[in-house]
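Problem 12. The chain below contains 326 residues. Write out its predicted structure in token notation.
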Amino acid sequence: MRRPTPLPPPPAGARADDGARRAARGADAAADTTADPDAVAPVIPLTARPGDAPELLPGMDGAASDSDAPAEAVGLRDVWRASRARRKALRSEIRRFTARQRRRRLTWLGVAAALVLLVLGTLGAAYSPLFAVERFRVVGAEQLDAAAVEAALAGQLGTPLPLVDESEVKAALVAFPLVESYRLEARPPHELVVRIVERTPIGLIETRAGYTLVDAAGVALSTTETPAPGRPILDVQGGVRSGAFESVGQVIRSLPDDIRSLVTGVTASTPDDVTLILGGTDTQVVWGSAEDSAMKALVLQTMMKQRPPASVSAYDVSSPGSIVVR
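Solution.
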């Protein structure tokens, strides 16, 4: 094998220049060491990549230590700005954590405001002419003239339904003796219903003025010169305020319609000796006291079917367990 040709030696001048440069570099290094005896070479980490700046230790040139950096003066304005920024951040955090609570509060406030507006609007409309009385409807009037009752209440026309004066309505209905009780019902937007409970007449009492129709409480309903047809004549000792009259009222009110229509007279001297007179045959019904009137009425109705009044002169139902027929 052929050996390579050796390089020619450098010229003498080049060798001299190279030595001079080496000497100059040595002199510079010696000068640096003399100028800063504590200088330390920069530490290059093993994981450094090409182009990264070397990491300098404290005290090295190019990295100023904290003690060498000049301290900046902190003014009152900087403190105020920092405090304001802190408060702003705190408020932001509070708002973030209370967002659900605030939404719930706003929802309840909205609902309450809507309810208040609804109530105020309803009350305003109810007490306005939009709900004024324009017509009456009388319910329960059988013996009364409904048109007469409506005419008596005409003063309430045009009055808002919640403002109808019940005292005036009562004063108007007092003029009708047949009215035992009543109840008002507002039917928006314009109707007022008057529900009437009429008194139940039980018979006629003969007086100086004629024959007065009375109910079980002794209230005079009407007076005529001659007896009204279909009404029994009451012969009660002690008048309408006596115990005998109270028993008579209870007995007549407990009678079935088919028996009541046959009664033409009632007599009683005490609360325990009520006697009915059946018209046409003048058959007597010895009732006794008002106790067990419902049972006595049922027993009498059954016996009258078995033995009609035309075939007997008296029924004694004072003891409903042992009825006597004569």
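Discussion. The two ends are 175 Å apart (CA to CA). Students who got a different answer should revisit the alignment rule from Section 12.3.
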